[in-house]
Amino acid sequence: MSATLSPVRPRRRRPYGSWLRGTAITVVTLVFALPVVWMFAAAFKTNVQVTDPSVGLWFTPTLDNFRAVVEAGQIVRSMGNSLLVGVVSTVLSAVIAVPAAWAVGRFSMRRTGSVILVARIVPAISLLVPWYYLFARMGLVGSYTVLILSHMFVSVPLIMWIMISFFAGLPVELEEAAHTDGLSAFGAFWRISLPLAAPGTATASLLAFVFSWNNFMFALVFSDDRTQTVPVTLFNFISYASTDWGGLMAAASLITVPVVLAAVLGQKYLVAGLTSGATKG
Predict the structure, then answer these.
(1) Which one, of 265, 254, 273, 275, lies nearest residue 65 by Cα?
(2) What would the DSSP string read from start to end of 185-214?
(3) DSSP conformation class of 88
(4) How far from 264 is each of 37, 183, 206, 260, 274, CA to CA, in Å?
(5) How many Å apart are CA 27 and CA 57, to the nearest integer?
(6) Average pLDDT for residues 36-49, to the nearest whole number?
(7) Residue 81 CA to its chain's centroid (Å)
(8) Is the pTM here over 0.85, yes or no?
């Protein structure tokens, strides 16, 4: 007597999971997108329209805020300062941090990794007073040098902490084969490990540049009118008596463009670096 097997019916997928996932994505997108949309919309409004709750997204746009901000000249100068400080500090930090991260990840320097973690969690504001005293005695306050050095204090541990997992996840057999072919340890790093870790390097460098571009605390303390960066320039739109909301939103929109362009142009490496770090770390 043979038993008949009934065909297995495929389970119907419940729409609740996809519905909840779509709802969650929509809510998160709105939470992050609405402030940005409001900022760009307010940049084309007058101060009266910005403070009027009845004026939504339907209004007659004006370019007076952008015209006034550009003609003042300070925002253009400060964007140049931020670009200079951000690029130089990021490049110098990557030159120092990437080889150091390779050494820590390849040779399992746990104590060095702990020191890097401590440097990451120490609040930078606790160092402002001794830094200001030291740099003032050296005559560096108000120069680009002090801004670059202060930003590197955060960028170097940030890049190292991200890159350690990338180098630790690379197959050690590749470097051993390079040693067999006659390459030194640094040669194997330069020709084998560094090209393979290019996505991670791009990701870490972009995050370091964004930190430098948005940093307000160091620039407020260490810069002057000549070396002022964009966050401090934005702060100047806020006074004791009133706030120039139109000019503030126009300036904020202008300084957002370089970061967005950097993220769009480096999206390929950014996504590859984040996913690679997630699987290897």
Answers:
(1) 254
(2) HHHHIIIIIHHHTHHHHHHHHHHHHHHHHH
(3) H
(4) 18, 37, 11, 6, 15
(5) 20
(6) 85
(7) 17
(8) no
